[in-house]
Amino acid sequence: MADACLEDESYRGTTLIFILVVMVWQFYVVYKGVVIMWYLKKAKAFSMNASGITLMGSMLAPFFGTGVSASYALVLNRSDSEEYAIFDVLRPICFSIMSLLLIWATSTLSFMWLDILAKSNLSSDSKKYIPRIKRAHNFSVILTGIITVGGITQGRSDLAGAYQVLLCIYYTAAYKFGGSKLAKQLMPSDMSQSGSENAKQNAEKIKRVSNSHAITNSIFIIGMGLYVSSAAKYEGGMMAFLGPCVFLSGIGGMCYVCIDYVKFGSRKKLKAVGFKSKLSQIMDSMTSSGSDATENDAASSEANGA
Questions:
Q1: Which residue in 93, 143, 146, 164 has the most C-beta neighbors within 10 A?
Q2: What pLDDT, on a 0 to 100 scale, did the predictor assign at position 300?
Q3: Alpha-carbon distance 48 to 172, whole Å?
Q4: CA atoms within 13 A on the CB side of 191
Q5: Which of 223, 227, 230, 252 is nearest to 22 (CA)?
């Protein structure tokens, strides 16, 4: 496959830059996850519950995704052997682990929403389906591992990719429609009641997450579609590399959204141990600079008046 992809090298440099940009994005998502985990451990608030599993899976999936990106970068840079030994070993191993962790994190994030739904005023008849949904999502993780490992070891990564596209279409619809419905249900009708502001923030965040997941999942689906179509036809050309660039970017986006939601849910505990987002740090720096400038101007005016 790798040899066929390099029949026309006119695009090699451009595609290599795309792959390296994707790797930087993946490393950033991993870094964000590590920082959040470190602060949660500092606050003694990290455990392998639904939130912790989501954070762990969302951090490790792009980490192994960098291995997939690196395997393509080595091929494009002509740094692999003539038999593409590294590509043929590194890519399937990292791809399989990455896929399993991605579905693990994505499905576990839905558990947090299901738990919120279980505590709401949902009817008892509807609540009885929540454990069944959780079991179905756990089964999807196991099935992903079997199909991905089996497909790649048998040289049919296109089948593994096609399965993941179908699964992501389901999660796209589930997050988009389910998240929007949950957000609407959680939105308080009377803001004067106690806890209304917190409920409003949760509802707005869930709606943003549902929309963001739909977008990043769509990016993944488009990229995987490009990859599967080029792999199925065994055609060389830019599409064989463009597809992985796109779907790896989408995976990074999905993991970023999951990590950001965990950060939101733990915002009070993180704040208690001194965590500040980059935006907050920038705003504080600007405010501090403005205050210093004002104080300097005042001091200068007093000196001139004296």
A1: 164
A2: 53
A3: 25
A4: 3
A5: 252
